[in-house]
Amino acid sequence: MTSHSYYKERLGFDPNEAQYESSTTTRRSGSRSSNHHHQHHHHTQSRSSHHHHAASATHQSSASPARISISPGGASLDHYAADISPAKKPKHTSSALQQPQGGYEDALTQFKDERDAIQKKTFTKWVNKHLKKANRRVEDLFEDLRDGHNLLSLLEVLSGEHLPREKGKMRFHMLQNAQMALDFLRYKKIKLVNIRAEDIVDGNPKLTLGLIWTIILHFQISDIVVGKEDNVSAREALLRWARRSTARYPGVRVNDFTSSWRDGLAFSALVHRNRPDLLDWRKARNDRPRERLETAFHIVEKEYGVTRLLDPEDVDTNEPDEKSLITYISSLYDVFPEPPAIHPLFDMESQRRVHEYRDLAQQFIYWCREKTAYLQDRSFPPSLIELKRLLNDLHTFRNEEVSARKREKSKLIQIYKELERYFESIGEIDVEADLRPEAIEKAWYRMQTAMQDRDMILQQEIERLERLQRLADKVQREIKHVDMKITDLETRITEEARHIETLHPVNAKNIVESLETEIRLLEEPLHDMNQDCHVLNEGRYPHAAELHKKVTKLHQRWAQLQTTFHTVLLPKLSGLKYPVHEKTTTRQHRIVVESRQIETNPLFKDLLEHIEWCQNKLKQMLAADYGSDLPSVKEERDRQQHAHKVIDQFHAKILNDERQQSKFSGDELNLYQQRLNQLQKVYAELLSTSTKRLSDLDTLENFLAQASAELQWLNEKEQIEITRDWADKNLDLAS
What we know:
Order of helices and strands: HHHHHHHHHHHHHHHHHHHHHHHHH
Helix content: 55-70%
Number of strands: 0
Largest sheet: none
CATH class of the domain at 3-227: Mainly Alpha
CATH superfamily of the domain at 3-227: Calponin-like domain
Structural class: mainly alpha
């Protein structure tokens, strides 16, 4: 079975599609890099005629410059293709080199050869470490991977999966095996850009090294390190681990995977940090670099079985190879994943004091953060009494708990200064940056700022509620006063209605006008109280709704008082006869006179239009709907609020009609007064109906809002019960 058939039929993965996507991605950059690649090609090598013609035929049908890249750790292999062209790939065996012109090119070529030699040796040891489990071994990395068998065995050991292979010895079989390995890597989501089976079968040194490095990255470095830290590349995470493991060792500064390891101190520190019983640090500091490297490599190989991928001379060089060092150091990570808590360079007493400081600092900073979060909370209670209690609690907290913590902070800083003096000759204190005095002061400052802000906001909130409380007290007093006044007027209207017919018309008129004036004077305080309730509601005063209900009830009583006045008292006043000579006229004559007045006098016309307007509004209001749900009720309430405002403003026109009485006399005055009384009566009824409808809509809206909230709560509980697993043996039901 071919590699393509195996992956497509059994695994549902098409290698051709994956390879096409990869090649499409890099096709744009291929043309730009091709010339550069060929300019740096200096190696030639003879091959047997059979291999030469087969390789040439293959190359002519393939894409140009090969590259390998992999996403874990951000590593790529572009530079491996820089020295070689697929059409002229040399084999690994030594041959005559075309000597470059100039000293710089000569030195560069020598450096690359040394680097490749170290990588080849390191990668060969790494491959053999794993091939040992499959009873295989490679002597020459470039030669022994050509048939694909060792490469497939390596991938089987690393992945734990079985891969099919061709058993023949012909080039066709070798290409099939190499292609199977490459397709397996693509199946594992490892990005291979334009790397071909021919490159492996032909023993291309650069691309073979690049392929092995890609495998190392994916199967060793990425799997070991990336999962440990978020948003950090494999290389950076491994570097951070190395820094932690060698921290506070004099003369050791791990900044990279090249020169930082050259003198062997970093390897010695890493071993000593984890096994101080196996390595003498003082002796290691006095040894020569290669002696240190030899000692460290020997210890981890003997005690932990870490394959010696490097020799001292591979590291102690002008430019240590980064990839070789990363490969070996990641092997050390396997045996020393986390450094011990106690640093071997420092005595137990100093470590105890450091741990004591660290624990106290952690507790202190946690307390600061916890209190800062509490002090920044702005969900204050609406009650003035509860707010004053919160302010009192804050003052107690400042005077007692904060004062005690301030002394604790001073003690912590003093302990840190003592530790600084103690460790001055050895190295820096092993305390995280977020536990040092600077972090403590920063956390303390934030807590202090939050406490001051809370104190200021609480005082402002208390002052605001006190202002609202004074306004609420004022509204309460006015409610009581207006309530008493309305009650008094109700009593007086009832009493006057009994005996007004016995009074002289002039006296009766004076009494009625006095009552009317007193009723009208109640309108302004009712309006003011309504405005005050709005202010209280906007200010979230806790009893605003209760006061608003009382004011609304007073407004209804006042409207009813007006209705009673116009329907009970005024008709009796209009029925009184004045001691003057009256001319008897027929009903027909009166209608004619009124018609003439309407036609000739605009005041009569305005009066009748006002009566008609009030009657139409009253008719519309009595026929209006209240809505069927919460949104429609809110809409009706808003509409009624606007209508009520218009009706309230219409009272100014009625007052104007009353003032026009002075322009009439005789029969015209009597006729005008009759129509005016009719207007006052229908307006009082309209105002009373509007007030009652507005109150009813308010009540209905509140009821529907509460009912909707209850229904939502019931739906949530119902959903919980519907989705509950009643068959669960551990079902926990609230009793």
